[in-house]
């Protein structure tokens, strides 16, 4: 396996994939033969309950040189900045919160040690909720891998490419692309561009899927064919690995003989996927008014209440604005959902004043927010000709539960303590 070369295999979100790095390694017609070819072991990775409905069932058969049980005992691993669920948060006022671009590490730091929870809700043991994290890293993971049992991880690079080696093969993601790692799958992260920074959604709840389209019809938003799985690949190096495992909000580490990246062939519908947001088919109004941001949903993790998401992943990509007699930026609003936002590049149209790439904001349930005074004045006076928003990409993790910021995130030196001043110039302009 060449970690510098990322392979993309069959496309499709939730579709069945099959890949082999060695001809004849995949059984034909039988999932778990008595004696798999090439002396391999058959192993099943289940991402859902066995009896989940067929449309929701996620599992993949792996044919590997050694099964996952060939591992050593675990001991606690100290990484105090990666906390989980609402229990890891601190009391925070119901204010709009914003963070400066998060700093890159000064000391050698890989992806695991560079993860830092900004805010979280729910409980991974109860399989509900999510965490919004940032990562800053300047060192590739070598003989070390991460297995997150608590939830799947949606990686959103902001600076620098990620080359991610997984049990099923290698994928790369640059800023503007996102990479989804299923719960329980071992992976490691290399940094071909040096120091790198980005965001992560750790989803404890139902697995991400494409949203229903309803009256939109059969086309639009993210297309299944644009999600790419890796081609099977395996490491020939038999050197020992250190495995960091996250379970119940705690991290553990062990030493195992050989590499966890020893899968020679696999087939199933549970796989890591990479998606280029440039392929998102943005929809919007071509007459008047401003559609809800849900029209930009890429992936959704449903809850037990129809229409109310455990977590949505939403993007605000380049797009045309053509609405007439309409205030085009997002309106002032209070929302029952909680919104964590990040900026990949460019300028967010509602916050030209101070929302910077690599930073973040949090507006919890019913916290008022909206365009700053500059954006409001500009949009109120603008001549409403067709206009294309270009060179911009922002995103949002939206969740039904209040997000609890961590003590690390609430440190004054990381926060933009003057955030609320962006609305101070707004005046009472009532004219009876």
Task: Characterise the protein shown here.
With 432 residues, the chain is mainly beta. It has one helix at residues 373-381; strands at 17-20, 41-46, 59-64, 75-76, 97-99, 115-120, 130-137, 144-148, 152-159, 162-166, 169-173, 177-181, 187-190, 196-203, 227-228, 241-247, 250-256, 263-268, 273-276, 297-302, 309-316, 319-321, 338-345, 360-363, 387-389, 393-399, 404-405. Strands 15-19-12-9-14-7-6-27 form an eight-stranded antiparallel sheet, with no helix packed on it. A six-stranded antiparallel sheet has the order 5-24-23-26-21-20, with no helix packed on it. Strand 20 and strand 21 (309-316) form a beta hairpin. The termini are far apart. The model has no long low-confidence stretch (mean pLDDT 95).
Keywords:
single chain; 432 residues; mainly beta; Jelly Rolls; 2 domains; 8-stranded antiparallel β-sheet; 6-stranded antiparallel β-sheet
């Amino acid at each position: 396996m060449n970690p510098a070369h990322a392979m993309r295999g069959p496309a499709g979100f939730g579709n069945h994939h099959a890949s082999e790095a060695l001809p004849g390694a995949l059984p034909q017609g039988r999932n778990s033969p008595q004696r798999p070819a090439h002396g391999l072991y058959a192993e099943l990775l289940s991402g859902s309950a066995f009896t989940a409905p067929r449309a929701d069932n996620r599992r993949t058969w792996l044919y590997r040189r050694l099964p996952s049980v060939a591992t050593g005992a675990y001991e606690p691993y100290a990484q105090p900045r990666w906390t989980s669920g609402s229990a890891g948060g601190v009391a925070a006022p119901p204010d709009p919160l914003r963070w400066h671009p998060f700093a890159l590490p000064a000391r050698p730091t890989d992806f695991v040690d560079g993860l830092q929870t900004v805010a979280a809700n729910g409980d991974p043991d109860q399989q509900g909720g999510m965490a919004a994290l940032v990562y800053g890293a300047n060192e590739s993971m070598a003989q070390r891998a991460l297995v997150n049992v608590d939830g799947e991880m949606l990686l959103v690079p902001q600076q620098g490419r990620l080359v991610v080696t997984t049990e099923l093969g290698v994928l790369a993601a640059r800023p503007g692309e996102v990479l989804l790692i299923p719960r329980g799958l071992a992976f490691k992260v290399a940094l071909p561009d040096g120091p790198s920074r980005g965001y992560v959604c750790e989803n404890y709840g139902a697995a991400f899927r494409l949203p229903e389209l309803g009256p939109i019809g059969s086309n639009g938003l993210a297309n299944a064919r644009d999600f790419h799985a890796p081609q099977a690949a395996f490491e020939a190096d038999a050197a020992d690995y250190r495995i960091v495992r996250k379970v119940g909000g705690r991290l553990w580490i062990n030493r195992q003989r050989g590499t966890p990246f020893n899968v020679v062939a696999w087939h199933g519908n549970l796989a890591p996927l990479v998606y280029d947001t440039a392929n998102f088919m943005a929809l919007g109004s071509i007459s008047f008014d401003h559609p809800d941001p849900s029209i930009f949903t890429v992936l959704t993790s449903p809850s037990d209440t129809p229409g109310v998401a455990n977590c949505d992943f939403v993007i605000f990509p380049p797009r045309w604005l053509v609405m007439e007699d309409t205030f085009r930026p997002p309106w002032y609003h209070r929302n029952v959902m909680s919104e964590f936002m990040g900026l990949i590049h460019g300028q967010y149209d509602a916050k030209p004043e101070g929302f910077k790439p690599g930073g973040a904001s949090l507006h919890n349930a019913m916290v008022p927010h909206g365009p700053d005074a500059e954006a409001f004045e500009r949009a109120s006076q603008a001549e409403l000709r067709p206009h294309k928003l270009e060179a911009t990409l922002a995103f949002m993790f939206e969740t039904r539960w209040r997000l609890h910021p961590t003590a690390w995130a609430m440190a004054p030196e990381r926060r933009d303590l003057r955030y609320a001043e962006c609305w101070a110039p707004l005046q009472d302009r009532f004219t009876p």
